[in-house]
């Protein structure tokens, strides 16, 4: 369930998580002393202040004629087949077209959707699922256990970028039309917390023409494709034969990309659009003070990070990586530039994952291990490592938004200690093709994000295990001792305490050798006209806008 975001991750947050927003560096470029900063961020607000009570329409018939326009903060990859899709913003569309076997509620707990209850577990590696009878896809075909089996196995068989999520599945076989048996190669702790939340695709319709299905998908969800203009917009139409309750009020939804923050914010403030994804920290106060507009927010399991090329170049030396980490203050950047829109991180595990998963990781100890701003130490480490004076590492990041701003901040700080940086903001598609090469001419550092869920495996396996080099990671970190073995052992265990200890060991090595430097967890935020009713931000970015669920049914009032 990880998507890199342009968080994350091609939630991927990619990321996610994290969303791309175009903003300049906040605050002056000067000494970073861990003070309050002077950026545009609102560091005092609590994201829970932007969650609201349920709302119900006075006139349901009028509500059912609603049309909603939703502006996304990044260009989509426009892969709408969930077997293939690996970016959060394509999945925002797909999650309204497809229903999952299970789906996350607003507290990141998997609840049955197409499944008829929780599975019957046998010996920790075999699960028998019952699915509900009579559910139909948009083309009229009934959803069967064979469709669910295909949804589980296709990502691995077709070697898509989602393969790691399902790689532990040895077989998925229909017992009959409404029963499915899934066997795992080994025990896998995250299976019931995450992997069961697979979007169900119609096997026959999909395999008849996979390329066509990817841009004109057929699901069993509350909306179906109505119009699609590549690079411009996607329009969904309510499916009036939707099998589940509640039935959605919104009749049509139009998705458009609006990567420029100022333009996106201006449109919602002027009433030219209904909802925008991602409220930039630099525009937060303006949006919040505008009459007729509300900010909606939720903490997220997103993880943004600075990664170093450990394959080629100066950054193969851990002291060079430490020097870069000491050259600036990540905490200060987050406070200055993101304010209420994010929380600084001290590990690859977002705090929401730590809390909702009940992991009780030693985050206070990890905070003490995070490199502090110390330009003198940075300069000394670079000198001792023999880095030439003309070193200007290439730092690549999604163009626009806080990650490009962070790259610029790092470049400025390196300049202050006698070096420099070649900062390149790239379209997400270009970045995805670049950061996995391991070539120092392409990059020595990159900024990306990942969004997952309540289990650490999504982060550690996808972003650190050696099997994922060139797939979801571009740092090519070889590790010390049992680093990769520990990640794999944690993945193949169902003993939570054993897994926790393994992840603690892995995290301590990450913080010591810094193949990546944890950055921040960006909250999921939306700004909507007050006429948009019963809108709630979900912790998982690819679930926004949720539109209809047990806890919301969005509509436009008037």
TrEMBL record:
It holds the Pfam family SBP_bac_5. One of its GO terms (molecular function) is peptide transmembrane transporter activity. The keyword RNA-binding does not apply. PROSITE patterns: TAT. Residues 110-468 form the Solute-binding protein family domain. One of its GO terms (cellular component) is periplasmic space. Belongs to the bacterial solute-binding protein 5 family. Keywords: Signal, Transport. This is ABC-type transporter, periplasmic subunit. PANTHER family: OLIGOPEPTIDE-BINDING PROTEIN APPA, PERIPLASMIC BINDING COMPONENT OF ABC TRANSPORTER. It comes from Halopiger xanaduensis (strain DSM 18323 / JCM 14033 / SH-6). One of its GO terms (biological process) is peptide transport. Residues 29-66 are annotated as: Disordered.
